[in-house]
Amino acid sequence: MKHHLRASLAALAAVLALAFAACDDEVADHRSSSADNGYRAIPDGWVELGLPSGLLWAECNVGAAAGSECGDYIAWGETSPKNVYGWNSYRYCTASADGHLDTLTRYNTLPSFGPVDNLTALVAADDAAALRLGNGARTPSFDDWLELIEHTAAVWTTIDGVSGCRFMGANGNSIFLPAAGCVTGADTSYTGALGFYWSSSLADDPDGAWSLYFGEEHGVLSCGLDAYDRYRGQPMRAVRPR
């Protein structure tokens, strides 16, 4: 089930829609290869984008060896990929025999979903980025993704034959996020068309968590934040302090 954006961000996708024709020559000059200067990471695989927070962004998705690889699909609050993604296989819930959510057993703010613990952000033990990468790495929060959207130029492009979204900072450095789609059940959907990336932030309805989403249609890129069911398998991209 897809949840709605917070009211204060209702117009975010419209504000951030970018036409290819609006992309400047500098952006176009850096599209040809992940080896181009505009995609260069600092030596340990982290990219400085010149953001106000000073956060560094990982060059690759969790579980990937290159920026154009999708990496691992992981349910929110879980730490490794699996074969089937649904409420029946989700770590922090109970579900009915037909696969519907019964109660949440962790990260819950509403009594209607079960026992309330008021955890609204992933703890390190449930954060695949923190566990895999260490060194202060973590899954971006809602606010981290919002900062990335607001302080970089985004463009739909193709790297090594993979479609996705490139976010370029004012300093000329950038990261590429593949349009890796998502996994529900045992099926991967929207690969090459849409990108969904988990944040560490629980949604207002606690059966969902906030995600970055992006996609391109008729030469226009839409990019924003929305919330999706926690059981879904989605890629993860890490951040860490400078």
Helix content: 10-25%
User: pLDDT under 50 segments (min length 5)?
Assistant: 1-43
The tally of domains stands at 1
Which overall shape is indicated by the principal axes computed on the Cα atoms? globular
Strand order of the largest sheet: 1-13-12-11
Strand content: 25-35%
Largest sheet entry: 4 strands, antiparallel
- Structural classification: mainly beta
Overall mean pLDDT: 86
Number of strands: 14
What do you see in this structure?
The protein is built from four helices and 14 strands. It is mostly beta strands and 242 residues long. It has one domain. The strands form five sheets. The protein has a four-stranded antiparallel β-sheet with strand order 1-13-12-11. The protein has a three-stranded antiparallel β-sheet with strand order 2-3-14. Strand 7 and strand 8 form a beta hairpin. It is globular and about 50 Å long. The N and C termini lie far apart (36 Å). The N terminus is likely disordered.
A few lines on this structure:
The longest helix has 9 residues, at 142-150. Strand 6 (153-159) and strand 7 (162-168) form a beta hairpin. The protein has 242 residues and is mostly beta strands.
Topology:
Layout: H1 12-16, E1 18-19, H2 25-29, E2 46-48, E3 56-61, E4 93-95, E5 101-104, H3 128-133, H4 142-150, E6 153-159, E7 162-168, E8 174-178, E9 182-184, E10 187-189, E11 194-202, E12 208-217, E13 220-229, E14 237-240
Antiparallel strand pairs: 1-13, 2-3, 3-14, 4-5, 6-7, 7-8, 9-10, 11-12, 12-13
